Amino acid sequence: xxxxxxxxxxxxxxxxxxxxxxxxxxxxxxxxAQAIKLEGGEEMAETVDTLVSRGxxxxxxxxxxxxxxxxxxxxxxxxxxxxxxxxxxxxxAIADAGAFAIVLELIPTEVAQIITEKLTIPTIGxxxxxHCDSQVQVVSDMLGLFTDFVPKHAKQYAKISSVMREGIExxxxxxx
Length: 176
What we know:
By secondary structure, the chain is an alpha/beta fold.
């Protein structure tokens, strides 16, 4: 009974609201999604409004936005007063546009708390502290799939990379 939430790919919704509507509807009609998630704040409010007003449930995503990692870097967002205030504006704009929840990724705990207290929709934290309404972790981080980079906020509950490496090495050895 899990909600199937499709993460809109890069450039599938940023061009204009009409293109976002076409692509978002494909996720619901063809892929079996029940809602979509897109990244961005105030600049995406019109797109969120277009999708929601046409019956597509939307989850917003602000703070560190993975699709913008090459532009903003993989680091905490909202550390200055100006950027923290912008995150609050972004969250409110997305909520006002009709999103039913919002992901707060890699933002200071205090900023996440302010946003969570201000909004009437649920906040979903990832590296944003304990004050969000819920928490999410990336499964590959939780299971220790990657060893080169482990986010500070990710607890590894297993380290499957070593088991995988051993299995692959055993296979290679047998083939040789």
